[in-house]
Design brief:
This protein has about 110 residues and is α+β, with helices and mostly antiparallel strands. Helices cover about 35% and strands about 20% of the residues. The strands form three sheets. A three-stranded antiparallel sheet has the order 6-5-7, with no helix packed on it. Strand 5 and strand 6 form a beta hairpin.
Length: about 110
């Protein structure tokens, strides 16, 4: 009975824990979570940081694409898996060639 009176509920998992097991969720937060929830949150945040660094360090060059139907322009890393426009869903996506853009600009002033 006395033991139940000393237990506190974790705000994350709603498990009853001893007050010594509670830690702040973050340095600026006032909410307290148990050690197991804090450990899971740190694992998730480190995984997110790893994914972000992998994306930013990716050696794949971004390619520019445009849709011939609607004119939507977008970029993707790696090669294009399908040639369907993410905006209009038509199968008319082409890779933007830098030389093609220069050629169009040059011809438009003639």
């Amino acid at each position: 009975m006395l033991e139940d009176a000393q237990l506190v509920v974790c705000r994350k998992c709603r498990k009853k824990v001893h007050p010594s097991e509670l830690k702040r969720e973050s340095p600026n937060s006032s909410s307290m979570v148990c050690n197991s929830c804090l450990g899971r949150m740190k694992e998730v945040s480190s995984t997110i940081e790893e994914l972000k660094s992998n994306i930013s360090n990716s050696s794949e060059e971004k390619k520019r694409y445009y849709c011939e139907e609607c004119g939507f322009k977008f970029t993707r890393t790696g090669r294009l898996i399908n040639n369907t426009c993410p905006y209009c869903s038509k199968e008319s996506v082409k890779v933007v060639e830098i030389n093609l853009i220069k050629e169009i600009k040059d011809n438009s002033f003639e």
